[in-house]
């Protein structure tokens, strides 16, 4: 494991290290860190699927050749197509939209081999008109992201255009991306989310964050201690849909084609277990690390960055509170972050966003390479550069394509239980994420495991996504399910609701290949740690360390863990993160020790 990852987790004290890598030696895809190596195969898939680098400058005369798969389409021109040609183009557009799960990007004025030819003003207008007609036919809207002139052997000025297509929402089937919000306490996380989702700037004293808090003590202290969810929508034309103009959550869902769900996590070190649970359980697509411009890298900032890197969650950075600082202070904070990101173990390529064009490029490069780390500098009070972050959220594509989504939906139903509520006149309600399959109202599932390793039968009542009713839940979507009069005492966080046909593997003990990121002394048999595996969070005892008597910081080994309270449902290959005080480590499950079948099974 790289020294930097260990250093990022460190003792949680957040002291900034002056060591730095050489900027010229760090480019996307040539890293020598463990995380970069493991992510390389994922990078190749993403490059084939999603947006390419679209830097339109004289130094970049061509784009990469068009790929058959993915949501990118090159068109030299679209002028007065015949009826047959029009139908073919419409079918092609449906395919691209399906590949991008409701989003596609068209490059107009570009040949299939990537050559930037460009079009005259008249031809460009005619091509965009044809594209608009095609979009209407397939039920989508278009928005021109940017136009730029190109150098081509012609007396007439020629330009190319990049156009975003997005399906008009249909029966709550909007594109949903989850963004975990990380950062040190008092860095402005909740205030930023309040400004984005409410549509009103902050007054400098925390007014914008009040709607996000769930408990009285959070309002009194101004510090988040629990996990809260906020939504920001974009309609098919790329316009923001939020709580401004007295909209309700249901109205936002109805008019949004794309939804960003923010998972607001705690910044204070004493709530670290809640933050880890939010990262491991809610499966965020991206992480937004908020850093205060006036304090820089402080407190839990480094630890949160290390967590996101260890769990391989793509991360971008927002520097807030720039209204409180001089430009020199902001630039010092940016340089401080760049030094950390360029260190060999981190191997990130920071990209400071200062214009709309930068925001579009950052969104596309961020999706194709996890090494790219966009950095925004903004203010929640003055609104400075806030629009750039909104453009970024509007354009950023999902990491998984339609094929992967369909494969997950073909599997048996598996719903992870993250939250449990009792709602008056509704009964027991559970919140969580559908890991695989499809879930409908009235479905019969089983939930468990109980302390004896059994599963209880139940029936799904109603389903809600983003606080509005929903009839069908698909793999990868988060929702709350009403279970009627099912006994709440039989439920706990970390359980799963699965199809009765599934044969879930329940175990007290499991083996994991781990790397000890930080430990003050030695890690040995008998040591107790809190283990996080997906939505499972439980204390476990180290039963054996194979091949070694003990482990020290930075060492790797296969370890046998045993849960101390109740058995859990686990899968081989699942990511493991464990902690105890200053002790921290990561790894993955290599083998399960299932409990005897006689004690498992279903019960009424």
TrEMBL record:
InterPro entries: EF-Tu_GTPase, EFTu-like_2, GTPBP1-like, P-loop_NTPase, T_Tr_GTP-bd_dom, Transl_B-barrel_sf, Transl_elong_EF1A/Init_IF2_C. PROSITE patterns: G_TR_2. Signal peptide: none annotated. It comes from the Eukaryota. The keyword Nucleotide-binding applies. Keywords: GTP-binding, Nucleotide-binding. Coiled coil: none annotated. Pfam families: GTP_EFTU, GTP_EFTU_D2. Residues 14-45 are annotated as: Disordered. Residues 174-402 form the Tr-type G domain. Gene3D superfamilies: P-loop containing nucleotide triphosphate hydrolases, Translation factors. One of its GO terms (molecular function) is GTP binding. The keyword Signal does not apply. Belongs to the TRAFAC class translation factor GTPase superfamily. Classic translation factor GTPase family. EF-Tu/EF-1A subfamily. PANTHER family: ELONGATION FACTOR TU-RELATED, GTP-BINDING PROTEIN 2. This is GTP binding protein 2.
């Amino acid at each position: 494991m790289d020294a930097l990852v260990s250093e990022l987790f460190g003792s949680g004290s957040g002291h900034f290290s002056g060591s730095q890598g050489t900027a010229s030696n760090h480019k996307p895809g040539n890293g020598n860190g463990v995380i970069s190596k493991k992510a390389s195969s994922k990078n190749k898939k993403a490059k084939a699927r999603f947006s390419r680098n679209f830097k339109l400058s004289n130094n970049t005369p061509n784009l990469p050749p068009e790929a058959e798969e993915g949501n990118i389409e090159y068109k030299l021109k679209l002028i007065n197509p015949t009826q047959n040609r029009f139908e073919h183009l419409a079918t092609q557009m449906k395919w691209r939209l399906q590949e991008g799960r409701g989003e596609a990007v068209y490059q107009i004025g570009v040949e299939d081999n990537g050559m930037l030819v460009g079009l005259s003003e008249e031809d460009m207008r005619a091509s965009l008109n044809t594209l608009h007609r095609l979009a209407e036919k397939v039920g989508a809207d278009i928005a021109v992201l940017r136009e730029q002139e190109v150098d081509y052997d012609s007396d007439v000025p020629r330009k190319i255009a990049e156009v975003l297509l997005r399906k008009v929402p249909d029966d709550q089937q909007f594109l949903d991306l989850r963004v975990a919000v990380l950062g040190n306490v008092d860095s402005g996380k909740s205030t930023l989310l309040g400004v984005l989702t409410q549509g009103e700037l902050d007054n400098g004293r925390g007014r914008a964050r009040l709607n996000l808090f769930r408990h009285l003590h959070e309002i009194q202290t101004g510090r988040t201690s629990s996990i809260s969810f906020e939504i920001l929508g974009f309609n098919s034309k790329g316009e923001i849909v939020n709580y401004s103009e007295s909209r309700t959550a249901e109205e936002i869902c109805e008019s949004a084609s794309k939804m960003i769900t923010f998972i607001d996590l705690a910044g204070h070190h004493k709530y670290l277990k809640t933050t880890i649970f939010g990262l491991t359980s809610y499966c965020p697509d991206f992480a937004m690390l908020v850093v205060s411009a006036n304090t820089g890298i402080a407190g839990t900032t480094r630890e949160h960055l290390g967590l996101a890197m260890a769990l391989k969650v793509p991360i971008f950075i927002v520097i807030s509170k720039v209204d409180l600082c001089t430009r020199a202070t902001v630039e010092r904070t940016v340089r401080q972050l760049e030094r950390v990101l360029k260190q060999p173990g981190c191997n990130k390529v920071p990209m400071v966003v200062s214009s709309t064009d930068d925001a579009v490029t950052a969104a596309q490069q961020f999706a194709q390479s996890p090494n790219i780390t966009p950095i925004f500098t903004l203010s929640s009070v003055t609104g400075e550069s806030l629009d750039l972050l909104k453009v970024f959220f509007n354009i950023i594509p999902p990491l998984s394509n339609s094929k992967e989504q369909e494969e997950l939906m073909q599997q048996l139903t598996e719903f992870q239980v993250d939250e449990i509520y009792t709602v008056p006149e509704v009964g027991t309600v559970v919140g969580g994420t559908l890991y695989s399959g499809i879930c409908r109202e009235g479905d019969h599932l089983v939930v468990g495991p109980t302390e004896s390793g059994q599963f209880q039968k139940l029936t799904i009542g109603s389903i809600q996504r983003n606080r509005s009713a929903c009839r069908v839940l698909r793999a990868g979507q988060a929702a709350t399910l009403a279970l009627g009069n099912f006994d709440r005492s039989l439920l706990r966080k970390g359980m799963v609701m699965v199809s009765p046909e599934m044969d879930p593997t329940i175990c007290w003990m499991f083996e994991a290949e781990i790397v000890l990121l930080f430990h003050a002394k030695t890690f040995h048999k008998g040591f107790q740690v809190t283990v996080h595996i997906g939505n499972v969070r439980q204390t476990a005892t180290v039963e054996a360390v194979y091949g070694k008597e003990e482990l020290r910081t930075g060492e790797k080994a296969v370890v046998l863990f045993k849960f101390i309270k109740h058995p859990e449902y686990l899968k081989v290959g699942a990511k493991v993160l464990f902690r105890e005080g200053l002790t921290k480590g990561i790894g993955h499950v290599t083998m399960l020790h299932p409990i005897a079948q006689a004690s498992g099974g279903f019960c009424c």
